[in-house]
Design goal:
249 residues, alpha/beta, TIM Barrel, seven-stranded parallel barrel, 17% strand, Glyco_hydro/deAcase_b/a-brl, 5-oxoprolinase (ATP-hydrolyzing) activity
């Protein structure tokens, strides 16, 4: 019997209504990654997201990003490494404060946007972030892109991790995620997305962006919560996994 973790980035809106929309996705998730004031998130969204996660019985984690709300953390700003690490730490501590008030224990950390991409490509940045996390948040797992720099850094520092895969993105021939700038890097056919999710869960073969067979497994599948069809996608994913004999954990 196979099991898989499903994660989703949430709490990235501004209002209670945004959080209510997020809550409709939660029954199909294993964990949510809650924006904590850097690229998005405020007192309302943090508190409500944590409360909704508690009610749904799913794990809650911190989703820090570059402190650049104007660009939603999607570009790499000119920040010193010291300032960046300080900001990441402050964001996680902020969510921990709200979590304590909601009687929710955080379980993990997943980086956001450009920071996620930069850390997965830069060994030095990945190791600096892992040193911070291992020192200040030793009990929180890191959710990292499988086969990239953050995974290697987590293993180097013996920090608990979850390997993440994407059902709607193509991979390069050497198991790395194909950059969005590459034509065909985003899978448009939903049936292919579902098939790749099953393959990543079970360790079965699937095709790279160049049509070559790849074979590796992950611990968690990312579901994009900002997709207008996120709820129906989550339902279909759960149904497909169950049909393949896979349960979410």
């Amino acid at each position: 019997m196979h099991t898989i973790d499903i994660n989703c980035d949430l709490g990235e809106g501004e209002t209670a209504e945004d959080c209510a929309r997020d809550a409709r996705i939660m029954p199909y998730l294993s964990r949510c990654n809650i924006a904590c004031g850097g690229h998005a998130g405020n007192a309302t969204t943090m508190a409500l997201s944590l409360e909704n996660a508690r009610k749904a019985g799913i794990a809650a984690g911190a989703h820090p990003g570059y402190p650049d709300r104007e660009n939603f953390g999607r570009i790499s700003p000119a920040l010193s490494r010291e300032s960046l690490l300080s900001s990441v730490g402050e964001q996680i501590y902020t969510l921990q404060k709200y979590a304590a008030a909601a009687q929710v224990e955080l379980t993990h950390i997943k980086l956001h946007g450009a920071l996620y991409n930069d850390a997965e490509a830069d060994t030095g940045l990945a190791e600096d972030l892992l040193r911070l996390i291992s020192r200040e948040f030793a009990n929180l797992k890191v959710l990292v892109l499988a086969n990239a720099a953050m995974e290697r850094a987590a293993r180097k520092y013996r920090h608990p991790l979850l390997r993440e895969g994407f059902m709607d993105r193509r991979y390069l021939d050497y198991n790395q995620l194909a950059p969005r700038s590459m034509s065909g890097s985003v899978i448009q056919d939903f049936e292919q997305c579902l098939a790749q999710a099953v393959a990543l869960t079970t360790g079965k073969s699937f095709l790279s962006i160049d049509g070559r067979p790849l074979q590796f497994s992950v611990d968690s599948i990312c579901l994009h919560g900002d997709n207008p069809e996120a709820e129906s996608i989550a339902q279909s994913l759960q149904q497909e996994l169950l049909c393949a004999g896979i349960h979410t954990c």
